[in-house]
Design brief:
By secondary structure, the chain is α+β, with helices and mostly antiparallel strands. The chain has three helices and nine strands. It has two domains: 71 residues, SH3 type barrels (Roll); 80 residues, no CATH class. It comes from Trypanosoma congolense (strain IL3000).
């Protein structure tokens, strides 16, 4: 593999790679990492999926650059493509929008975890955070010591919060019963 001053010089170059066994592989260099001894070639799309070949450089016998090839990296993969402007609109930039989204999420998480009861188990808060990522409209019911989804569905400790259980009231509707199965599946994931 040729040594370059900068590995990004190879990106976007159309090459023909001859392997040690004589096989020739053609494509556009998507990435090259000399420390990992990897060359990744982009060979276009097949069935709307990118066709990519990953080659370990010790198995490369020869590399030749192909001039004026029609195969190019798609514009979104081009190494020197311009990044979008940080100004989404005149009054609001992407950076400000992302910062406000992060701040709102942090405030919501802080509000979710605030409890006046110092006896609230850490495992209960861990379960609350895990479920809140999937079900954002839940809350900690400190009076009953449960995680409440609605009036019909809640999660309680059985016997402690290391193995929480989803409970549904007897008069619950079909939507609440199907919610119980989804919540239990979420809880069973690591």
């Amino acid at each position: 593999m040729p040594v370059c001053n900068n590995e990004t010089h190879l990106i976007g170059v159309n090459v023909g790679v001859t392997l040690v066994d004589g096989t020739v592989v053609k494509g556009t260099v998507f990435t090259y990492n000399s420390s990992e001894a990897l060359l990744v070639l982009f060979q276009g799309f097949s069935a709307n999926r990118p066709n990519v070949k990953i080659i370990r450089t010790p198995f490369i016998k020869e590399i030749t650059a192909i001039r004026d090839s029609e195969e190019k990296l798609p514009p979104q993969l081009e190494a020197k493509a311009r990044l979008p402007s940080m100004q989404a609109a005149r009054d609001r930039s992407l950076f400000k929008h992302a910062s406000s989204q992060l701040r709102n999420a942090r405030d919501k998480r802080t509000g979710l975890l605030q409890t006046d009861d110092p006896k609230t188990p850490i495992a209960a808060l861990d379960t609350l955070i895990k479920l809140e990522r999937v079900y954002p409209d839940i809350h900690w019911d400190k009076d009953e010591g449960v995680i409440r989804f609605n009036q019909e569905v809640f999660v309680k400790a059985k016997p402690d919060w290391t193995s929480p259980v989803v409970v549904v009231v007897d008069e619950a509707g079909d939507t609440s019963k199907s919610l119980v199965e989804r919540i239990q599946k979420t809880l069973s994931k690591k």
